[in-house]
Amino acid sequence: MRLMARCEVCGNDYGMAFYVETQDGARHVFDSFSCAIHRMAPVCEHCRCRIIGQGVEAAGHFYCGAHCARAEGRAGIVDHV
Ligand SMILES: [Zn+2]
Ligand SMILES: [Zn+2]
Q1: CB under 8 Å, gap of 24 or more: what pairs does 41-45 form?
Q2: Which residues are close to ligand 1, an ion, with C-beta < 5 A?
Q3: Which of 16, 24, 46, 54 gives a 20 to 30 Å CA spacing to 70?
Q4: Whole-number pLDDT of residue 76
Q5: pLDDT for res 38
Q6: Ligand 1 center to residue 42 CA distance, Å?
Q7: 66-70: long-range contacts (C-beta < 8 A, 24 or more apart)?
Q8: What's residue 80's pLDDT?
Q9: 51 C-alpha vs ligand 2 centroid, how far in Å?
């Protein structure tokens, strides 16, 4: 029996799809890592790039790094290393 799963980003029906569970318990289906990134990765509120990896969160806002957080006036933020 083949497990059917459809990527929720591109709609691709692919047998090797995988699941990603988020912190709130929601489950997402993707056929590839690039689709997962497209769906899951937050966007830096300053430079609009996709945040892959740690990123910085300040008062509910997401940035790709401390330099972008500071550029938006969020003082006292240090990069997670
Ligand atoms: Zn996909
Ligand atoms: Zn940025």
Answers
A1: 44/68, 45/72
A2: 7, 9-10, 12, 31, 35
A3: 24
A4: 64
A5: 87
A6: 17
A7: 68/44
A8: 60
A9: 8
Tell me the ligand closest to 10's alpha carbon. Answer: 1
Residue 1 makes CB contacts below 8 A (sequence gap 6+) with none
The ligand whose atoms approach the alpha carbon of 18 most closely is 1
pLDDT tens digits for 25-78?
999 999 998 999 888 888 999 999 989 888 898 888 899 998 999 999 876 656
CA of 28 to the centre of ligand 1 (A): 11
Ligand nearest to the CA of 28: 1
**pLDDT grade for 9, boundaries at 50, 70 and 90:** very high
Q: Report which secondary-structure segment, H or E, holds 56.
A: strand 56-58
First vs last C-alpha separation in the chain: 44
